[in-house]
Structures are given as structure tokens and as C-alpha cells.
Amino acid sequence: MPLNSRAKGKAGELEISANLRQRGYTAARRGQQFSGCNGDADVVGLPGVHLEIKRTEAPRLRVALAQAQQDSAEGELPVVLQRGNRQPWVAFLDLDDFLTIYAGWAAHEALVEVQDILGQCGDGSCLSPGGDSGQ
């Protein structure tokens, strides 16, 4: 791997680590800086997620995802984060994994909606049969 590619990859890993820490994931750090063992995630600190970081203009996303899937531990979500020059970071993951995440988000949104309804009717009477719908 050319030196400038390696430096760009390291810079991308440091950038993602800093971005995650700014968002409250204070344990985020480069995985390679401590052991450098094969199979380590590029960035660690998001429990249950195996991050492969690609800071390149011409990413081979499917190859990178296959690497993340192979290297991830049982139960870890393999995700590739990629950014080209002057571009935002994007995430690449398996459709089934995306739909699992979406289902969790949708369930959370439904719970928030129910909590909002309960808050509007105070004692929950608007949810009982024949009760006021709150609208």
C-alpha cells in the first residue's frame, strides 16, 4: 500500500474517531493503534458494530463490506464508512442489517407516539374503548 494511501486511511480513521467522540461516543478510537492485529475494526468504541473505514475516491464497497463481515465477531454489525475528497461520510451495510435497524427505529417512533398520546390525555383514558381519542 503506497505511503500516501496509508496516511489517508489513518487520517480517515482519526476523523471518524473524532466525529464519534463529538457525538458522545467517548470510547471511539482507531483499532489499529493498539494492536494492529488482522480482524480488528478500523475504529472501535461502538459496541456491537464492526467499522471498516475507507477514505478513498474509488471505494470497492462490496469488497470492503465482505472484509467487515468476515472480520466482525458473532453478533457485530458490519458497516463500511466511506468518504471521498470534499464529500460527506456515507455508510454501506447489508440490506437485512439496514432493515433490522429500521425496524428498531420504527418501533421506537411508535412508542414515542403512544407516549405523546398518553401525555395528551393524562390518565390514558383516551386509549380506552369509547374514550376520547385526544384529537
Estimated helix fraction: 40-55%
Strand content: 5-15%
Per CATH, what is the topology of the largest domain? Trna Endonuclease, Chain: A, domain 1
Number of domains: 2
How does the helix and strand content classify structurally? Answer: alpha+beta
How many helices?
3
Shape: elongated
- The count of β-strands is 5
For the biggest β-sheet, the strand order reads 3-4-5
> CATH top level of the largest domain?
Alpha Beta
CATH architecture of the largest domain: 3-Layer(aba) Sandwich
Please give the alpha-carbon distance between the first and last residues: 63 Å
Q: What low-confidence regions span 5 or more consecutive residues with pLDDT below 50? A: none
Q: From the alpha carbons, calculate the radius of gyration and give it in angstroms.
A: 21 Å
Mean pLDDT, to the nearest integer, reads: 87
Order of helices and strands: HEEEHEEH
**Biggest beta-sheet profile:** 3 strands, mixed
Structure report:
The strands form two sheets. This protein has a three-stranded mixed sheet. It is 43% helix and 14% strand. The protein has 135 residues and is an alpha+beta fold. The chain is built from three helices and five strands. The protein is elongated, with a radius of gyration of 21 Å. It folds into two domains: 3-93, Trna Endonuclease, Chain: A, domain 1, CATH 3.40.1350; 96-127. Helix 2 links the parallel strand 3 and strand 4 (77-82). The chain has helices spanning 3-22, 61-71, 95-121, and strands at 29-30, 43-44, 49-54, 77-82, 90-92.
